[in-house]
Amino acid sequence: MNNPNLANRDVNLSSLRLKRLSPAQVQRIDDFLDLVGDYGEVHLIMQNGELRYINTIESHKAWLNGERRVEKSQTIS
What we know:
Elements: H1 23-36, E1 40-47, E2 50-58
Antiparallel strand pairs: 1-2
C-alpha cells in the first residue's frame, strides 16, 4: 500500500526532531502500516516512556466478492 502522495517526498528524519522514536523505529512503523494494507490497525505500546511493542490487527470482509449480504429480515438456516 504505497501512498502516491508520499512517493516523491524527500524527508530527512534528522530534521524531524524526534523525541521518542529512532529513525529505525519510524521506518519499522511505516513497514507495518504498509503490511496491514487498506484495512487494519497498527497499535504502538509504550512502556516506561519507550516504544515497547508494535501490534498489528488485520481486518477482512466477512463475505467474498459476489456473495450476497443477509438482510435483517432474512434468516440464516
